[in-house]
Write a structure and sequence with these properties.
The chain is an alpha+beta fold. 24% of the residues lie in helices and 43% in strands. It has one domain (2-163): Invasion associated locus B (IalB) protein (Immunoglobulin-like, Sandwich).
């Protein structure tokens, strides 16, 4: 059972990586939901986040989800990226905002829901996200293939302003 499950994950990763890596025609391969604000009620009040996600066209399989939130404890922006299982965990992810330099983020954990990377969002990175047109996420899989997705940032600034 374990071997067949691992094989299925490798197959899914290979298929999605081969399809999404064709960055020349991203609109034919995946759909980006657009930035939105989602809130949940907690004991200390509302906990809101700016969220955007990328799904594979046809299957609606989530390939990446970006979340920016302001934790009540610190009021400092935090970035969380969710990716599918089967990625090369040791390599982490690369995030490039606009024309800025690529920034590496380590994978912190993987669960049944996917693999997660995140960190405090530096003021410079946040400013780039507010003013740039796109960001690019890149990660490797177990076959050493790189998957890159481009996400528009239109609407991010307005969503982030709602978080404050």
């Amino acid at each position: 059972m374990r071997r067949s499950f691992a094989g299925l994950i490798l197959l899914l990763v290979a298929v999605s990586a081969g399809t999404v890596a064709a960055d020349e025609t991203p609109s034919a391969v995946f759909d980006v939901s657009g930035w939105r604000v989602d809130c949940t009620t907690k004991a200390q009040g509302l906990d809101c986040a700016a969220i955007d996600q990328v799904v594979q066209r046809g299957t609606n399989q989530q390939l990446a989800m970006m979340t920016v939130r302001l934790p009540a404890e610190t009021k400092k922006p935090v970035l969380l990226v969710q990716l599918p299982l089967g990625i090369a965990v040791a390599s982490g992810i690369m995030l490039t905002v606009g024309d800025g330099a690529p920034q590496a983020y380590p994978i912190q954990t993987c669960t049944q829901a996917g693999c997660f990377a995140g960190a405090a969002l530096a003021d410079r990175q946040l400013a780039l996200m507010r003013t740039s047109a796109v960001l690019r996420l890149a990660w490797g899989n177990l076959e050493k293939q790189t998957t890159t997705v481009t996400m528009p940032l239109s609407g991010f600034a307005a969503c982030y302003d709602k978080l404050k």
